[in-house]
Write a structure and sequence with these properties.
The complex is a heterodimer of chains A (302) and B (364). With 302 residues, chain A is mainly alpha-helical. In chain A, 79% of the residues lie in helices and 0% in strands. Chain A has 13 helices and no strands. Chain A is flat, with a radius of gyration of 27 Å. The two termini of chain A are 42 Å apart. With 364 residues, chain B is an alpha+beta fold. Chain B has a 6-stranded mixed sheet with strand order 6-7-8-3-9-10, sandwiched between helices. Chain B has a 5-stranded antiparallel sheet with strand order 16-20-17-18-19, with no helix packed on it. Chain B has a 4-stranded antiparallel sheet with strand order 2-1-4-5, with helices on one face. In chain B, 39% of the residues are buried. Classes of the chains: A mainly alpha (302), B alpha+beta (364). The interface between A and B is medium-sized, with 24 and 29 residues.
Chain lengths: 302, 364
């Protein structure tokens, strides 16, 4: 390059224009390749969401109005629905963390040939229909279900306990369905922790418990947060399981939307609920994102 | 605890099997207080297994490991109080440099101010003063190596273990760190066990080298002795370059190779088969008509290759008997080998004082 520049005395370096042109063409090609995906997202996500957004501002008289949003503030029942939604989501996430962390740890520390088998056990329910799994829980948990029968036979309790059509049943079912979403990213993060890390901690004088809390847990926390976030956000909009196992007593936003549409055929009110839920979800993700950035600055690339 | 800065390590009949394979076969090794001992061997020789057993990361099947007078074989790693530098460094990415180095002190309940001073002192020793606040991902490979080292000795262990700590560094930095590690060892005075597969590194750094092969110690001695008086063919072959010539014993008891009489008698009359170990740099290119004198054992042959390598060069000389000798020489203007060319016939001589004779185990 220096040679050309000095002999011709011009600012233009050898092949500079041609190389820049080639790079531009490559970028356009990449953009072209991603166009179908962008179009699909635009059509199946942005357009319907935009439509709902529009509907939520149309009053019963067909004019622009804020009546749906006003109702949501005025009527206590709406607040209750949102409370229930967040409560169920939070509790499900907590249960998933309590069950999922030891499970992921166990999976990450299995000898290689067993990992596949146990991973299959985690993933198998993942591949069966959501509805089938939910009704399976109904069969297991109902008054004359397997669990009650068994418990009464071995004398754990005398009369059937109400395990379903309430919060308990909803949480059991949802935790079961959400568990893989927590376990998989967590397992990934744990697999990335070198065994030498734990050796180093113990070599430096940390007891197994301190090694875990001071080294292992902080290194796995990125996977835990990712998994918990997926579970929480999925729970916020969950419909089937709370509808079936909650038996009408656990009313979450998605269930409420269905009810409004089924009984009142009120698109505006349903849309407004959907919009608020969407904004709440985005808010959660945003906050988590902020926390997480703060987190990774604190914990490095763990 | 007493005030000494170093502890001897005494290993007795330490055995470790993986399935049917012996990783360690009744190893006996006395490591002296304060010495720098290197475990040297090819991969899979058991050197890392031995180091991990000293650190407590694997359970031997039988045997004893003592630090000073204390039996350690049943002690869990976090109570052994030995420092260790890992091959991967194993620095904690979620802690800063100072937090990494301070971690063992924190675990020992040291007060914050004293801890800070000790961390700074340790970072100073490894020439990283002022970098305490950095994150691990902001450091170069060489700097990480130094942090790992500082973390391993900051709590003043009396035994320091290192598992190929320099293998991830480039050649120049590695050679610089070898010398630096030696300095730090001298400064700390701590008993150091170092694992490497790099014989040059072992020769450079060690007070003594334990050559290990197939889970057994092949030889334990100073670098000079390991190089000049290898105890067996494995050590002779593994350490340094060498050509091994199978000698025959004639009726007069002399050891000969072809027409050359190498030695007038075997070093140990009870053993029949001997090999001559020839180090390439101990050979001299002689005048073509040189005759067998008292000073040299003479080999003659034809140069097949002459290779220039910078500070040294070597020539491959095919002997009339079929064996090939490597002759290494300096590349200075007066070097006797600098005019060698392929196809040339030469005589090379080996000074009799430099002879290395080892019992040959070719019978196996």
């Amino acid at each position: 390059m220096t040679q050309t520049a000095s002999t011709t005395g011009q600012a233009q370096a050898l092949n500079e224009v041609a190389l820049a042109g080639q790079e531009r063409r490559e970028q356009w090609t990449l953009l072209g390749l991603s166009t179908p995906a962008i179009l699909v997202i635009a059509i199946v996500v942005l357009v319907p969401v935009g439509w709902l957004f529009y509907l939520s501002f149309v009053g019963s008289d067909g004019e622009f109005s804020l009546e749906h949003y006003k109702k949501m503030i005025e009527y206590k029942s709406y607040a209750r629905v949102f409370m229930t939604t967040f409560q169920v989501s939070l509790l499900t996430t907590l249960i998933c963390i309590l069950l999922g962390y030891p499970l992921a740890y166990f999976l990450a520390h299995l000898p290689g040939r067993w990992t596949g088998l146990f991973m299959l056990a985690v993933l198998l329910p993942f591949w069966t229909s959501l509805l089938v799994r939910t009704y399976a829980w109904l069969v297991l948990l109902q008054r004359k279900g397997l669990l009650n029968d068994l418990a009464m036979q071995i004398g754990l309790w005398d009369s059937p306990i109400k395990l379903v059509h309430n919060m308990t049943g909803t949480l059991i079912g949802m935790a079961h369905i959400m568990l893989p979403f927590l376990v998989l990213p967590l397992y990934g993060a744990m697999k990335k922790i070198e065994p030498d890390m734990m050796h180093a901690a113990s070599n430096l004088g940390a007891s197994p418990i301190r090694s875990f809390w001071n080294v292992y847990f902080p290194l796995s926390v990125s996977g835990l947060v990712a998994g918990a976030l997926i579970v929480f956000v999925l729970c916020l909009g969950f419909y089937v399981t709370p509808a079936v196992l909650g038996g009408g007593r656990v009313v979450m936003v998605a269930t409420q939307i269905t009810a409004i549409l089924e009984y009142r055929f009120d698109w505006g009110a349903a849309s407004a609920l959907g919009v608020v839920l969407l904004i709440a979800t985005i808010g959660v993700l945003y906050l988590a994102g902020r926390f997480f950035k703060f987190d990774s600055a604190l914990f490095g690339k763990g | 605890m007493d005030n000494t800065t170093a502890l001897p390590i005494s290993i007795r009949s330490l055995t470790k099997k993986y399935g049917d394979l012996f990783a360690l076969k009744a190893v006996d090794l006395e490591i002296r207080s304060g010495e720098f001992l290197t475990l040297l061997g090819p991969s899979g020789s058991g050197k890392t297994t031995l180091l991990m057993a000293i650190a407590g990361f694997n359970h031997p099947d039988s045997g004893s490991i003592r630090f000073g007078d204390a039996e350690m074989v049943l002690t869990p790693p976090h109570k052994r109080d030995v420092g260790m530098v890992f091959q991967s460094y194993a620095l904690f990415p979620h802690m800063s440099v100072a937090e990494n180095v301070g971690f063992p002190l924190k675990l020992r309940g040291m007060a914050v101010t004293e801890r800070k001073a000790r961390v700074e002192e340790a970072l100073d020793t490894v020439q990283l003063s002022g970098l305490g606040k950095r994150g691990i991902d902001q450091l170069s490979g060489g700097q990480r190596q130094r942090v790992a080292l500082a973390r391993a000795f900051v709590f003043r262990p009396r035994i320091l273990l290192m598992d190929e700590p320099l293998s991830a560094l480039d050649k120049k930095l590695r050679e610089q760190m070898q010398i630096e590690l030696k300095h730090i060892h001298r400064q700390l005075g701590v008993t150091t066990v170092y694992v490497t597969h790099d014989q040059r590194e072992a020769l450079t750094m060690s007070d003594r080298i334990a050559v290990i092969n197939h889970g057994e110690l092949a030889q334990v001695d100073t670098p000079e002795a390991i190089y000049n008086k290898p105890a067996n063919e494995f050590v002779a072959d593994f350490i340094g370059e060498s050509t091994m010539l199978q000698l025959t014993q004639d009726s007069a008891g002399r050891l000969t190779f072809g027409d050359s009489v190498v030695a007038s008698e075997a070093p140990d009359p009870s053993h029949k088969d001997w090999s001559l170990v020839i180090r390439p740099e101990r050979l001299r290119v002689l005048a073509k008509d040189a005759s067998a004198g008292d000073r040299h054992v003479i080999f003659s042959g034809t140069v097949t290759d002459a290779v220039f390598q910078g500070e040294t060069a070597f020539a491959l000389v095919k002997l009339t008997g079929g064996s090939t000798l490597v002759v290494r020489f300096g590349t200075g203007a007066v070097s006797e080998g600098s005019r060698l060319e392929a196809g040339q016939s030469v005589s090379v001589g080996l000074i009799r004082d430099d002879l290395i004779l080892i019992p040959s185990d070719s019978a196996q």
